[in-house]
């Protein structure tokens, strides 16, 4: 599966920026799953394409909710992200090794399922 960017309209008067995130694609029983350990979000479907669409919707809903509630960056901190003052790189996800160590769901997937890893770009608003 090639890299893809999540279509989103999440920007504000300060602008937006794109973060590249690792995403896993795997099958659990007959369901295709797309999982992003850095956001601890997933989508599923009967096909990989449906799972990708489901995941994009999940990310959009997450960003919409946390942006409106002004909790996005607090939530990202709880997920282990680093928040920076630099306008070019406002936030960065934890390294994969840290996610594997601290995220039980990611560890379970890593240990029990054959998966494909790819990167996706997610647009985040500048300091929501």
Please explain how this structure is put together.
With 128 residues, this protein is an alpha+beta fold. It has one domain (4-125): Double Stranded RNA Binding Domain. It contains four helices and seven strands. The strands form two sheets. Strands 1-7-2-3-4 form a five-stranded mixed sheet. A hairpin with a 2-residue loop joins strand 2 and strand 3. Helix 3 (96-102) packs across helix 4 (104-112).
Name a few traits of the molecule:
128 residues, alpha+beta, Double Stranded RNA Binding Domain, globular
SSE topology sketch:
Elements: E1 4-6, E2 16-28, E3 31-36, E4 41-45, H1 48-68, H2 72-78, E5 82-83, E6 91-92, H3 96-102, H4 104-112, E7 115-125
Parallel strand pairs: 1-7
Antiparallel strand pairs: 2-3, 2-7, 3-4, 5-6
Helix % is 25-40%
Level-1 CATH class name: Alpha Beta
Helical segment tally? 4
Give the C-alpha Rg.
14 Å
Q: What is the straight-line distance between the termini?
A: 31 Å
Structural class: alpha+beta
Number of domains: 1
- Helices and strands, in order, run as EEEEHHEEHHE
Given the C-alpha coordinates, what overall shape results? globular
Largest sheet: 5 strands, mixed
Report the strand count.
Answer: 7
Strand content: 25-35%
Q: CATH topology, anyone? A: Double Stranded RNA Binding Domain
Mean pLDDT: 84
Enumerate the strands of the largest sheet in spatial order, edge to edge or round the barrel: 1-7-2-3-4
Q: Could you list the spans in which at least 5 consecutive residues all have pLDDT below 50?
A: none
Query: What is the level-2 CATH architecture name?
Result: 2-Layer Sandwich
């Amino acid at each position: 599966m090639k890299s893809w960017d999540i279509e989103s309209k999440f920007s504000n008067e300060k602008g937006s920026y794109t973060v590249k995130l690792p995403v896993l694609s795997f099958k659990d029983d007959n369901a295709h799953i797309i999982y992003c350990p850095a956001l601890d979000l997933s989508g599923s479907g009967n096909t990989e394409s449906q799972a990708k669409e489901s995941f994009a919707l999940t990310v959009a809903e997450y960003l919409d909710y946390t942006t409106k509630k002004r909790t996005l960056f607090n939530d990202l901190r709880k997920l282990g992200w680093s928040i920076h003052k630099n306008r070019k790189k406002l936030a960065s996800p934890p390294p994969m090794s840290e996610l594997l160590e601290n995220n039980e769901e990611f560890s379970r997937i890593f240990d029990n399922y054959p998966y494909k890893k790819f990167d996706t770009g997610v647009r985040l608003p500048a300091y929501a």
